[in-house]
Fold:
Amino acid sequence: MRTQVGIVGAGPAGLMLSHLLHLAGIESVVLECRSRQYIEDRVRAGVLEQGTVDLLIETGVGERLQREGLRHDGVWFSFGGRRRHIGFPELTGGSGIVVYAQQEVVKDLVQARVAAGGQIVFEVEELSVHDLDSKLPKIRYKKDGVAQELICDFIAGCDGFHGITRPSVPAGVIAVYERIYPFAWLGILAEAAPTSDELVYTYHERGFALFSMRSQQVTRLYLQCTPDEDLSQWPDDRIWEELCKRLSTQDGWAPGVGPVLQKGVTGMRSFVIEPMQYGRLFLAGDAAHIVPPTGAKGLNLAVSDVRVLSQALEAFYKSGREDLLGQYSANCLRRIWKVQRFSWWMTSMLHLFPGADGFDHRRQLAELDYVTSSRAGMTTVAENYVGLPLD
Ligand code: FAD
Ligand code: DHB
Structure:
């Protein structure tokens, strides 16, 4: 088989890249190790930046998002038992966010690719990449037990943090910059009507908690836990008790309680590789970087990477230009490091660190007081949260 761009991974990065390339008249094949049902059911992110929303709408995959997504014009920060609001449009020239589950974005993109005759091969096995430094890199894999080879002009490694494309780059080419945090998030989806129209990020002596939602009937909640937290120690009653302790505020606000539909533990790390390219392999999304989830940025960064990559590939195919491909990594990394900084800062401000003392506690409260009362502080939160402008 032969294609122009071979894409490994059908997450938001791989699917969006395939969609953007199709709109630019460039052919691609997406290879995914999981089933269609698995990727369409996987519960993950939920916050879309203004730029992500605009791109999905502009490229014709935003119809359901516009109907079912929940537009938010602000966010709450809760600390010392009180909530403070930061409004987005007035601080950012009209921008906001939309809460729309990642698996819904994935469903919309899969449907658009299938409707346009795009090729997504699910449940591939033993995938490997070859001849990355040649003009004809190859992807080998098995489908239904039969060995296949896909010859490409370029390969996009969109296979997430645990994928195989990044480890396929020869040793010494890539530098890794990393922080691992001494805590994780226990996340649940609950059948309970949201009691707040907007997200609530909470700093509490017992640890961080986050109130989010998916629809008028479903709440999404997270609480800080240990990295090796054993979920069997967390029956639903204990989760609710802890969430209520951390989230409830003095004015009587509390999350609505209901049956738990799903639960899981997410580790937290900051991770960036440089460069994001080797020969004709280009890495995008979680394959190249991870942010801690506190800033709600992972999915959005995946989308901004592939926007840059699709433009560089379009310039190559339309006018033979290779300069944008050569600048891909540097162009992406400028945004990635700003987003890393924001995600690290939100994480540091809102979590309880092991060994933290009264000084740390008072410093964190003062920081939260500052960023939720000064216009400059609120603008910093708002412009980063809705998404920085593209360069
Ligand atoms: P993935 O979504 O990981 O996709 C990679 C794909 O590659 C997968 O489908 C995988 O099955 C496939 N694959 C892997 N290995 C192979 C292989 N060898 N061969 C073939 N296919 C392979 N981000 C936000 O922006 N906002 C949020 O609110 C947010 N909240 C989050 C909450 C949680 C609990 C978690 C876990 C993450 C959250 N994120 C959030 C992060 C976000 O989910 C990721 O950043 C996003 O999924 C990255 O997309 P991707 O396409 O790069 O990678
Ligand atoms: C959600 C996840 C996040 O990581 C975040 O910062 C905000 C919201 C969510 O799943 O809704």
